Each structure stands twice: as C-alpha cells, then as structure tokens.
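pasting ABC transporter permease subunit for the record, 246 residues
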Amino acid sequence: MDFSWLSDPFYQEYLIEGLINTLWLLLVSAIAGLTLAVGMAMARIRGPRPLAWTATAVTSVIRGTPLLVQLFFFYYGVGRLLEGIPGIQDSIFWGLLRDPFFYATLTFTLSVGAYSGEILRGALLSVPPGEREAGRAFGLNPFQVFWRLWLPRAVQLCLPTLTGEMILLLKSIPLVSTIAMMDLLQAANIIRDETFLTYEPLLLIAAVYLLLTIVLTLCLRQVEHHFPGVQPVRRAWRPFGQPRRV
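structre below
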C-alpha cells in the first residue's frame, strides 16, 4: 500500500474541497428536504384535492425512479434546456443555474422530501386525535396545535426512521461525481488517474465515509434521546448471570 501521495498539497486540496462539498450537500439537502417533507405530508393529509394529487404524483415519481436518473434529468436535461432560453445566460441567475451543486441539491432535496414525507405522513396519521383535541381544549388555534403538538409528536414517533434516511442521504452523495462535481469520490478518481493507484484512494474515501456515518449516527442518536417528550432509557445494573425480572 502506497499512501505517500497524501503528503502532496495538490491532492490534499482536492480532498478538502471534496469533503467540504459533501458536508454542504448533506446539510442543505437535509434541511430543505425535511422542510419539503412536512409540506408534502400535510398536502396529502389536509390539502385540497388538486394539491394532494400533485403531492402524490410527485412522491410516486421520485420514489419510483432511480436517484441517478433524476440527477441526470435535472443536470443534463433541465440544465441544458435552460441554456437554450434566450437571455438566460445573461441573467443574474445563470451563475446558479449552471452550477452542478444547485442540481445536486435540488435532486437530493426532492428525494428526501418524497421519502421522508411519506414517513412523516404515516407518523402524523398515527398521532391519536385526542391529543389534538386536548390542544384545542386549551385554546390553541389550528396552527399552534400543528406546530406545538401534532408535528412534534409525529416526529418523535418516526425519528429513528428519519435518522436512517439521513444516513442514506450521506451515502447517496457520491453520485454527484457523475455530473463533474467535486466530492470525495471525484477527488479519489482524480488521484487514481494521476497516480495510477487503484485501491489506496478508494480505501481512504471509504474510511472517510465510514467515519462520517459514525459521527452522523451518534449526533442523530443524541437528537433522538433528547427530543422533547422522549424519556431516557435507564437500565438497572444487575450481576452477570442474574435473570431479568419480568
């Protein structure tokens, strides 16, 4: 194994840029996707029929097509289509519309919104109606009931599943290397092409993703344990071999 290339500032710059882009994609897509998920879930539960049908159609398309196809559709399809619109390249939005980061964020946001929205919809429907009625009995308006009672209770119910979705999002980010965006995998590919080393760059990237997954899992687990309404689990000490009380 030859890792001497790690001391080269040229390759270090690639790796740092790839790591920063990976973390930014994860953060922006997670926040925007979870926000979209709330809207998608409520549109299907309480929205008017046209809005509910639209949310259902978008969810079905996103969940029924591969993520890589969606990424190609937005970057190579929509992106190239926008290039042909007269005046678009002279507008103030062209710097954003030609950036692969924008299309990657859009793709991951829609994916998180569709999958997490379906999870959140099931959780919202699982909240007992009596809890919302109790909020209205205390004088809360419908908006306050939703944001202070209904939504937090639903998130509490599906928080472990949402944690899994965030981990899947992290492991989906290497797909952006296919649209010429610098991420950790793209940095590894460049290093492989220039050093003719096959395994070492990939092993390094695998180790970085493993470390990121562990850190993300520990952080989200702390969120689960300290989420409002969640009681911490206390395990009583018992000698080894002593049967557990029923």
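The domain at 25-226 is CATH 1.10.3720.10 (MetI-like fold).
The longest helix spans residues 9-46.
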